[in-house]
Amino acid sequence: MSRQEDLDTALAGTAPQVAPRLLGSVLHHDHVAVRITEVEAYAGPDDPASHAWRGETARNRTMFGPRGHLYVYSMHGHHCCNVVCADPGTPTGLLIRAGEVVAGVDLARERRAAHRRTAIPEHQLARGPGNLTRCLGITRSDDGTDLRNHCGPWLELRPPLPLAEVRSGPRVGVPRAVDVAWRFWIAGDPSVSSFRPARSSR
DNA sequence: CTTTCGATAGTCT
DNA sequence: GACTATCGAAAGG
């Protein structure tokens, strides 16, 4: 079975089903690799926290397409990347929130240093979705990339982690649908970001 | 460790 | 003009 089929099969379920499956897998881009330690699930039109909730726009178009594509958006001057899963028409995304840099540490540190004056501990290089994309050099121009058909290993699937190593809780910074525990992380991993409640509007 | 607050820029109303 | 699926610095425990 080709890797392409493996990935396509692995991403076939609903967002909360697939999300923990990505923990421990490795995301490669531009000479840096990150082992995923934290993921959030954003489900289709029924999830009021999802960008897709209010329908298709120019920004979220990729989420409405086939699974295995990368959905990249920008906000607050940072980029966040999602892996699209499920079937076309049910726009679901998996936000990659944090990871451990396992290759290209010097380059990752260089990219981070451009936006920070103080020293960065190694386990914090890819802690937080904006920091992770900065380490990897992912920008809005990577939106729509098909991870299944890329010649290099974009997303290197690893065997699923034992359930005992996985924790879950509410999503970070999300003001709606607070009751669902759709953030998943590897228990005890230092690269996992700390929980932040949504800031009250106004 | 925690909380709070301002900066930030792209998207949508 | 108002909103964020954010970040880092600063201040407090």
Automatic annotation (TrEMBL):
Domain of life: Bacteria
Assigned keywords, A-Z: DNA damage, DNA repair, Hydrolase
InterPro entries to which the protein is assigned, alphabetical: Formyl_transferase-like_C_sf, MPG, MPG_sf
EC number: 3.2.2.-
A GO MF term: DNA binding
GO biological process: base-excision repair
CDD domains, A to Z: AAG
HAMAP family: 3MGH
Family affiliation: Belongs to the DNA glycosylase MPG family.
Protein name: Putative 3-methyladenine DNA glycosylase
